[in-house]
Amino acid sequence: MIAYLDNSATTRQYDQVTDLMSETAKNSYGNPSSLHAMGFEAEKAVKEGRARVAGAIGCSPEEVFFTSGGTESDNTVIMGCAGPSRKPRGNRKRIISTEVEHPAVLEPLAELERLGFEVVRLKVDGSCRLDPEAVRNALTEDTILISVMTVNNETGTVMPIGEIGRIKAEFNKSHGTSVLLHTDGVQAFGKIPINMSGNFRDVDMMSLSSHKFHGPKGMGVLYVRKGTKASPFMLGGGQEKGFRSGTENVPGIAGTGLAAEMSVRDLEARSASMRELRDRLKEMIVSQIPDIRINSPEDGVCSVLNVSFLKTRGEVILHSLEQQGVYVSTGSACSSNHSSKKGSHVLNAMGLKPAETEGALRFSLSEFTTYDEIDHAFSALKSAVETFRRLGSFR
User: Fold this and answer.
1) Which of 30, 110, 141, 260 could form a disulfide with 56, with the two C-beta atoms 3.0–4.6 Å apart?
2) Contact 96, 122 (CB under 8 A)
């Protein structure tokens, strides 16, 4: 039996998305920029995909831009807000973020820091929570950008984006500034409600990644609120209203639009189902496996459970589970450079001890996860941990 519990790394594409992409590739293969019927047909598919994404996140289609993935979307925001010269403009050089962001945010921030920008990396607590007051205290009139993820990819902690947005809006109003707020929503979309006209109304830019919500790999979304000023990251033919040049991936855009639309249908019921299965796994682990640390907070996103199994090595347990058809992760699939030697930068920022970081595993669910998969995964997990601890006692 297969139990795929690594959905934070990537999800299985919806069958309907695969069918639509195949049909689009076969029949709408014209260039959307071409001035003939085949081009118009491809352009129609792009417009429909854009409209579907806009409907899923509660915004206007003109505020939706397509990229190659969440990484490009994050880089576009950070580098774009720095301006075409990538140099500080007068005193406006401060960027506020956290210590637990995805490398797609951490790395471009580090690059801007090398170029003279000031990067403030806020700390989190032992549950990976960020105090929104820390953002308020870090804001100054030379701040240009706040970038805080919506849901942490390793622990599932939900960050207070709504409150941060209100703080940003109040600061701009009282100081006459134009600080922007960006959030990496990659691990949040399809799990928690996101409405750019509602609970996210103070967010100026948001990054999404299609393959995290049952869409195609190699496709990303960047929401940019109308009126927001940021420089293009990719220049060329002027596609995406000049904001992201390059011939559009028409099948990918069509698939992304449908996946986004499907991901928010009956969202409350889907989330409740994932939460029930996540809690079932957690309860079995807590009651039957001693010497553990639960790293995900009680109110974390419905799909993620991070647990440290003391006196084990997460990587060894992972490969033991793999032999039983159970697929999990030791952390972010995109964070190898941050996690290879000193362990997870997220768990380190939370204050975990080396032994706790070394034994950490992330279980991440999707709407396709079943009770049988959870039970099979737990059985294999308990056996693997007990075996490792028994054999480890002889070292």
Assistant:
1) 260
2) yes
Structure-token pair, residue 39: 């081009």
Q: Please list, residue by residue across 258-284, b when 16 or more beta carbons sit within 10 angstroms of its beta carbon and e when fewer do.
A: bbbbbbbeebeebbebbbebbeebbeb
Say if residues 184 and 70 touch (Cβ distance below 8 Å): yes
pLDDT at 339 (0 to 100): 46
Q: What is the pLDDT of residue 33?
A: 78
**Which ranges of the chain have pLDDT less than 50?**
336-339, 393-395
Nearest-angstrom CA–CA distance, 84 and 235:
11
Decide if 81 is catalytic.
Answer: no
Strand 326-327 and strand 3-4: the pairing is parallel
> Which pLDDT score, from 0 to 100, does residue 90 have?
63
Please answer whether residues 207 and 182 qualify as being in contact, where contact means their C-beta atoms are separated by less than 8 angstroms. yes
Which residue, among 366, 388, 383, has the nearest Cα to 302 in the 3D structure? 366
Residue among 59, 81, 128, 334 flagged as catalytic: 334
Query: Taking Cα atoms as reference points, which of 187, 210, 186, 203 lies closest to residue 260?
Result: 210
Handedness of CA 363, 368, 373, 375 (dihedral sign): positive
273-to-221, 302, 342, 367, 395 alpha-carbon distances in Å: 26, 8, 35, 7, 42
The answer to whether the Cα torsion of 187, 191, 197, 198 is positive or negative is negative
Q: What does the block give as tokens for 213?
A: 């919500």
Helix (H, G, I), strand (E, B) or coil at 69: coil
Q: How far apart are CA 124 and CA 104, in angstroms?
A: 19
60: left (phi over 0), alpha (psi -120 to 50) or beta: beta
Helices (H), the chain: 15-27, 37-57, 70-82, 103-114, 132-138, 161-175, 250-263, 267-288, 314-322, 336-339, 345-349, 354-358, 371-392
Instruction: Write down the pLDDT at residue 232.
Output: 77
Q: 393 — phi, psi (to 5°)?
A: -70, -15
